[in-house]
């Protein structure tokens, strides 16, 4: 770790730095709760490591206070991924799993994180706990850390409405393909191992999203399977 980088394997140092930054900037605790939905009781619990935050909320808080949250490959090339884009980071980890020819069940055993959770994170059904995000990243040779943003660097460039709509449209197309891959992968893995990797809540969310994507015209059903619709 370099100067101004904080390893999130142990969140306590990062939380202490964020709280000190909040005080230095004169940001009231009420503003933290209003902007991020995070009470100061939660912040202090995170600092004491008696609880761990959800990644999305932690990233939001850190970004506001002038820090970036990064996933970085430990070995060369030391590629970095901004964790404001949760989907992209999880996709990178899943690609690494495939490159290592690691079965879903083995991933679950090595990381301690369920397959259900990983696919729910990738589809943005929910955000991982920070400790679980760190665990799955470390399984595939990555580290997650917080780094102070250089003075004058913007957290995110401004985007006009047209650009936002184009990205949303592209995201729906990608999501459609990911759900199809997800269905295929868990079916193969469940058949191979005899283990079920899909809980009722995730299956319901998957079904609802597939219905929404079909109504929007991004996928079509043949009765037994979904596939991207030519547009």
Please describe what this structure looks like.
With 231 residues, the chain is of the alpha+beta class. The protein folds into two domains: 5-148, no CATH class; 161-228. The chain contains ten helices and six strands. The protein has helices at residues 12-25, 29-36, 40-48, 55-64, 86-99, 104-111, 115-122, 130-139, 161-193, 200-215; strands at 5-7, 67-73, 80-82, 142-148, 219-221, 226-228. The strands form two sheets. Strands 1-4-2-3 form a four-stranded antiparallel beta sheet, with helices on one face. It has a two-stranded antiparallel ribbon with strand order 5-6. β2 and β3 form a beta hairpin. α1 (12-25) runs antiparallel to α3 (40-48) and α5 packs across α7. The radius of gyration is 19 Å and the shape is globular. The model has no long low-confidence stretch (mean pLDDT 78).
Q: Beta fraction of the residues?
A: 5-15%
Percentage of residues in helical conformation: 55-70%
Count the domains.
2
Strand sequence of the main sheet, in spatial order?
A: 1-4-2-3
Shape: globular
How many helices?
10
Q: In total, how many beta strands?
A: 6
N-to-C CA distance: 46 Å
